[in-house]
Each structure stands twice: as C-alpha cells, then as structure tokens.
C-alpha cells in the first residue's frame, strides 16, 4: 500500500537525491567518487504545505519552493518520513520552508 503525505503550514516533503554507484555505461564507480557525490545534499520537492500564517492573521505567507523543484538541503535537520511506493522505500524528509537553503537550477 502506498502512503501519501500532505504537509501542513510551511512544511516541505523532499526526496533526497542519492548518488549513483554505477555509471551510465554500467561501470561501478570507486568508493571515493561515490562518497564525494554523497556530500551533495540535494533533493526533489514532492509536496508543499500552503504556507505559514503571518502573525495572528489568517493571511498565509507563500512558500518559496514548489513541487518538482530541485533544492539544496542542510547537512543536518529535517524529519525522516518512511513512505513506500511502487519503486520501494524512498529517502524522504520533512523540512520547514526556512530550512531549505536554495533552489538548484540546471542553467
């Protein structure tokens, strides 16, 4: 059974991007190359909450990221969330909008 999580307030559900252990051609990568790639903390935004409230008002402050964004994550932090899917368990974490360091652009 597949679970779905809808974040509340200013929380963001992120799937961490795991460094590949094989090249595109099928060659196993050396441990040094894999460990360097693991130091890059990037993830893909899977779900986003509506935003946080501005003081005691009902007004919501919009989120800085959207679903599908590739984001830079801090070394520590976030709450690990166990979600299963057709592809197996993914490494997913729940962060607040302010914990995300930036949006990674491929341009």
TrEMBL record:
InterPro entries: Chaperonin_GroES, Chaperonin_GroES_sf, Chaprnonin_Cpn10_CS, GroES-like_sf. Keywords: Chaperone. SUPFAM superfamilies: GroES-like (SSF50129). Pfam families: Cpn10 (PF00166). Transmembrane segments: none annotated. One of its GO terms (molecular function) is ATP binding. GO terms for cellular component: mitochondrion. The keyword RNA-binding does not apply. Belongs to the GroES chaperonin family. Seems to function only as a co-chaperone, along with cpn60, and in certain cases is essential for the discharge of biologically active proteins from cpn60. Forms stable complexes with CPN60 in the presence of ATP. HAMAP family: CH10. This is Protein groES. It comes from Micromonas pusilla (strain CCMP1545) (Picoplanktonic green alga).
């Amino acid at each position: 059974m597949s679970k779905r999580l809808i974040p509340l307030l200013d929380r963001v559900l992120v799937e961490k991007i795991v460094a590949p252990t094989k090249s595109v051609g099928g060659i196993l990568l050396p441990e040094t190359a894999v460990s360097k790639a693991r130091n890059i903390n990037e993830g893909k935004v899977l779900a986003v909450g509506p935003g946080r409230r501005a003081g005691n008002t009902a007004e919501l402050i919009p989120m800085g990221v959207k679903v599908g964004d590739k984001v830079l994550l801090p070394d520590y932090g976030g709450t690990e969330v166990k979600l299963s899917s057709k592809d197996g368990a993914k490494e997913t974490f729940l962060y607040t909008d302010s914990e995300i360091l930036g949006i990674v652009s491929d341009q």
